[in-house]
Amino acid sequence: MTIQDDETLQMYVEESIEHLENIENDFLAIEQDGADINEDLVNKVYRAAHSIKGGAGFMGLTNIKDLTHEMENILGKIRSRELVPTSAIVNSLLRASDALKGLIADVLKSNDIDITVHVEELQNVLSGETPPANPAPEAPSPSADNRTGTRTPSAPVVEELPVVESPAPDAGLDGKEKVNIPYPGSSHVCTFDRKTAAELFQEGKYVYLAKIDLLADVVAKGKKPKDIVEEMEQTGSLIYAYPDIAGVTTKVVDQNTQDPFFVVFATILKPTDINVLFEIDEQNIYAITENYAVQTLSGETVTGEKPLQSEAATEPVVEQLPDTAPEPDIPDTVEAATSTGINEPEAEPQEKPEYTAAPSAVSVELQESAGMSPPVSKGGKTEHDTSLRVHVSLLDQLMTLAGELVLSRNQLIQSMSSNDVRASEIAGQRIDLITSELQEAIMLTRMQSIGNVFNKFPRVVRDLSQTLGKQVELTLEGKGVELDKTIIEAIGDPLTHLVRNAVDHGVERPDIRRKSGKSPVGQIYLKAYHEAGQVNIEISDDGKGLDGKQLAEKAVEKGLISEEEAKVMSDKEKVNLIFLPGFSTADRVTDVSGRGVGMDVVKTNLDKLGGVIDIDSEIGKGSTIRIKLPLTLAIIPCQIVMTGGERYAIPQVNLEELLRIPADQVKNRIERVGNAEVVRLRGNLLPLVKLSDIIGIDAMYSDPETHELKIDRRKSIIDRRLNKTEDIVSDSDKREVRAEDPQIEQRTEGDRRYHAASALNIVVVSTGSMKYGLVVDELHDSEEIVVKPLGRHLKKCKGYAGATIMGDGRVALILDVGNLAQMAGLTSVESALKAADLAKKNQEISKSIRDRQSLLVFRSADDEQFAAPLNLVERIEKIKQTDIEYVGGKRVIKYRGGSLPLFSIDEVANVKALSENENLLVIVFIVAGKEVGLLAIGPVDAMETTLDMDPTTLKQTGIMGSAILNKHTTLLVDVFEIVQCLNPEWFESQEAVQDHVGEVPTILFAEDSNFFRNQVKASMVEEGYKVIEAEDGAVAWELLQERGDEISLVVTDIEMPNINGFQLTKMIKSDPHFSHLPIIALTTLAGDEDIAMGSKVGIDDYQIKLDREKLLRSIYDFLSNNYGKR
Amino acid sequence: MVKPNNTGASSNVELATFYVGEALCGMDILKVQEINKLLEMTSVPQAPDYVMGILNLRGQIVTIIDLSKKLGLPSTDCSEVSRNIIVNSQNEYIGLMVTRISDVVDADWERVESPPANIGGVQGTYFKGVFKTDNRLVGILDVEKVLGE
């Protein structure tokens, strides 16, 4: 046999691909069922394999035939329960179906491809069990029982007609003899060679018995008998004809011709299609089954049993309709649709074919779409997109719309020629309406369900998890979601990659999962749904998740980001690093992934589609990858903006929101951090980029008075000039403007910046994790635009995704928001943001760090909050009220063999009395070298805070001042003062001031915080020192120059504006006049780095700010030493 | 459209001639899709300097190239007589802005001479050859080469 004409081959290929697509998932289901065989399913696969085989035999595709034959054998065994479909067997079957796909994809060369491996494999599977007793699966007898069993549930309506006549094979069953089949309702008996027929059946052909009325069916239609014979010989083989062919072709047909022409004809055409060839009354055609029963074309048996083939190729769903409508063929290609009318009479021959066609087809389609796949996308030809199945009703709709369009055009032309404006308007509106409907309908023809892509994943996941020794369960959701054909084709690879990743990297091995308390079976969810005019696809797994830290380290290691960048990244950003080009997460290269093509490729692919990808991950819990895709690529909704006098389109996919900042608020809302301008938007900083800056054009503004476009001279968004005071602005500004452009001199009042026209228009856009504000001159409408590609000379302009034609015929460029961000240097906008934020915080911190103090917050009575410097606290003890002893008028508690003196704040200060709680806290301080305990109650909390201390209002003995902490007014306890009050005798030993030289030593004290300056100064003065205060290092340095002689010691804060403590120390130590001066640095918390840094520049000692005692001791020590030297 | 059969030694070819600056250039007329007046162009910021902009030619986006600039001459001053020659190159419409259009000249390939190193300040490599008419010298542009990167 040779390969037939192209069209037939193409039909065969398409059909086979369809079968194969379903086969895969069915195999998986069969595997899952295991020994508990679902016969329906097995039969379905069996039939599919059989159809492919039949066609292959007919086409002479021996390799395909052989392979499917082996598959069929195995399936037959499974069906008869001789073989339990184990994983191994299903593996072989799957491999075979893969090979088959390859063969069919390259059908013309399929005979040259070596498939012995697969055939042998299948044969081994088969022979592994009891040797097959020559499994001729298409032989009717073994399958007949099963068929009747399986058919009943799915085809309740098909009832066998009473047997009219039995098949009458002439003699024995060896097939050498003739078969005699009487033509139903006639005395004519057709006789043909049994062996020839059997061979034809073996090839998968259908055999038909037809009675052709030469006069009515042939001559009346303008053909000659010869034509019809030739036609038949081209499409199949004629195995019986009466009168014989020679007689018919030469016969002159006239009114007197009465004899009908009987033929037995074998062809690949299915019963539903056969009448395309004959074009005769369908009642005159019968199908002959393999066991030589005679059937009507709709499958009703006239004689003998129900045939195998006539049903084998069609879907089981078809059988739900009584007339076995030609379901898979009606919505074929456009051309095929026209032929449906011819097929129709087989259902209801009495009715007019044209009108019954559509409804019955539609009802089949509807049933089917409710059941399994959507109507339009039945084919799922991701590999072969030469033809596409479109629903007839959709075509009808298109036709109607086209008709309406023509009518409206006529209307428009008429109204235009008669100058009837009103009528033109109406016609215009109609055309507008029809166009959008037409657009929608045409789009629908391109829509395919995402199930086409999803359906291959069960196999992918199964194979992969087996290879990796993992257990994974895949859940698919939203298979019916439809997307444009081109997108469906393009997302296949990225999605496969993501699913593979989820299995390979996401889901852990069962033992590891068990250890971490998860079910050993990993879950992967694949979900598609519509949202906001886009399609969302989510791939989530419950695996180990992504370790942002690790990713960040790797990215730093690979030099993709700097360490600084990594530091300021949020976890989400770190996880999203995976999309950076050149990033691959696999620690080792596995067979599965990590072959260098990583997530960045996925991202690039999706970017090309106008999609957005985002990843969320939690360590130990799993990751979720979200993809947003436009429904279609050709027409996309866009926001039109204007900059520099040209319009630009920003795809709605990237659009987050539009922001207009009125001119008078610009200065308040926009902030400048370093070189970047940011806008505060609902608490977040959003970096701003001027579109005109990125693409290097001049921003324009429309002059509010003349409406001319003028070049906007503002170089930065917040005009520098705004920093000046109001009245100066207008004056100097006017002068400036005048200087720049004498033409606009006349505009004397009001500044343009305060005009509505100079409000800031910001388009907030996002690509994945990046989000930024694009500043444009003007915001226009949102429009649906048609994307057109740019020429090759513009391919290097990364900022554009294409161009479109606007309503006025001019071209507007479509902006590629992601690339614009890159061009603007916002590689990772969030991190840039964060950096900006951090810089800001740093500024604030540098302002406030000097005032930051760790505090221990506690209470003495329930509603009065106190705080003490945390670094003075030695420890906290819990005691019972009853443990307190009163000895010598004082409260003590036994502690480590000694007595710890206790006091409460109310003893000294005028505060509420200590709570009567049974359980008390003792905060232990060391004062004057002795431990003392402050009685308090909880809750205790340590907090680092900016001490915005009020040193006066609530000041009293034992209380330094007050501050608001946690929304409570908190009294800051002066432990020294309290202890001094209670035990003045403890401090007597220290009272000696070093005045033995006759003068009071003077201390230069630099500290920028008022509060601390006062506090510390007071304690030094109290000790008898003279203190010169300085607000910062610079002042201190000046004072030192002026009064250097008096000063015998410097106490300085570290963090100070202008000149900080380190710098001051350096200056002092490097000046020969002052280098002898001891320097004590005060800090809130002395870190090791600071101490090292300090000793490097020459700081002699570090003291904690509020530890007055130690500070004084240190001062004392230094001064006595120095004085000793003097 | 149809690839001109300019390798055939005997074939005659019609040349559309035009001025780029002062240089008279020509190209196979079969290469020319159409010639039109200046249309409203949309400038493309960041495009190479020889790209004047893009325009809408009956639904197709056409890149307009300043031929003079592309050939290394000063940019074309758009005037009343300057025209766009729309050519189809590699399945894409590209407009070549020329200073002005001249005649159609019948050229015999056999009389076409190899180009000198320089024609009117334009590098010789951009030309397929030169053709002498009675009083003028036409440089035959190699359009694909000119439109290459």
Walkthrough of the structure:
The complex is a heterodimer of chains A (1126) and B (149). The longest helix of chain A has 28 residues, at 6-33. Chain A is 38% helix and 24% strand. Chain A has 1126 residues and is of the alpha+beta class. Chain A folds into 7 domains: 6-137, HPT domain (Four Helix Bundle (Hemerythrin (Met), subunit A), Up-down Bundle), CATH 1.20.120.160; 161-371, no CATH class; 393-446; 450-630, Heat Shock Protein 90; 635-827, OB fold (Dihydrolipoamide Acetyltransferase, E2P) (Beta Barrel); 847-986, CheA-289, Domain 4 (OB fold (Dihydrolipoamide Acetyltransferase, E2P)); 992-1125, Rossmann fold (3-Layer(aba) Sandwich). In chain A, strands 30, 31, 32, 33, 34, 35, 36, 37, 38 and 39 form a 10-stranded mixed β-sheet that branches. The radius of gyration of chain A is 45 Å and the shape is elongated. In chain B, the strands form 3 sheets. Chain B has a 5-stranded mixed β-sheet. In chain B, strands 3-6-7-5-4 form a 5-stranded mixed β-sheet. Chain B is globular. The chains are: A alpha+beta (1126), B mainly beta (149). The A-B interface holds A 644, 646, 695-697, 788-794, 796-797, 799-800, 803, 805, 809-813 and B 40-48, 50-51, 54-56, 59-63, 65, 90, 92-94, 147.
